[in-house]
């Protein structure tokens, strides 16, 4: 087996698959290594939000560019319906404190050019009449939406393979090795791979892998949990979130509601390596949903699933060349925000490889922003 390629991507999630696709479109020889299965991590365990509102201003330009230029035609380009709906996003508030949080998020987003506004309870009910009377207001961005994360990841994967990308699963990466000062080899438990450029996009596990070349990204492993209901009659098309991000979700094409929330388990309190569901947190998420959507009180839960996310210390991703390690590009620490910007991130990473620089300014997402300024 030929273990040499132009670019080697560590991580077979939606970021890795999208990047592989955009590189292969330009004739680049690409290999993707994945420890488990394609889309095994957060790429298949998220609420499907394709949103601009509620984002940190540093990552907002990526979301805005993706929604403007990539998401509207993605199903057509990939030849698979990724169930993308551009029907808006309501971030809900029940208290004056929630309103204050949303006003701050809205003000910062408007300063970046996003069309988002605060609306009152009456306006919220006009958009989604099924919401609880406890909702006193929301932020509203009508250009936000949602898509199916599993289908999106699969579509990128299938098209990348069609263009010649080699995906190898079951490969646990243990080290990146420099040759003559440049990142050149990726060592797994079973093999050695070589490439001119290496992209590290392995979620939380990127931290330990980057450590092997002396780079550390301050992020924690946090467990999130999601659930799906039995199909319901059509109620709303918007993406929903809350001021405190304690739950989020949408109604899917076939009628099921997909909701997620925080489990409360993180790298400091969990004693297991494999993410597992927890009856207490699933029940907590359900109580939160009923508080916002009382009409769903009797809806049956048909499945739940859990997965780790890579929560960065400042809650925005790292997308960056590494000055100390030429040949290495980091794409990790997405903090649960990665799916919605994945087409744009894949595009930018491909540009970094092919053109030597991205078309958007990624300075605020550089890897060394955490270093002490002298």
From TrEMBL:
**Residues spanning the membrane:** 7-24
Q: Which residues form the FAD dependent oxidoreductase domain?
A: 6-352
Query: EC number(s)?
Result: 1.5.3.1
Sample GO molecular function, one term: sarcosine oxidase activity
* Coiled-coil residue spans: none
Mention any one GO cellular component term assigned to this protein in its UniProt record: cytoplasm
List the keywords (alphabetical). Answer: Membrane, Oxidoreductase, Transmembrane, Transmembrane helix
Q: Which domain of life is it from?
A: Bacteria
* InterPro entries on file: FAD-dep_OxRdtase (IPR006076), FAD/NAD-bd_sf (IPR036188)
- Record bears the keyword Calcium: no
Q: Which Gene3D superfamilies match?
A: D-Amino Acid Oxidase, subunit A, domain 2 (3.30.9.10), FAD/NAD(P)-binding domain (3.50.50.60)
Q: What class of enzyme is it?
A: oxidoreductase
Protein name in UniProt: Sarcosine oxidase beta subunit SoxB
Q: Please state the gene responsible for encoding this protein.
A: soxB
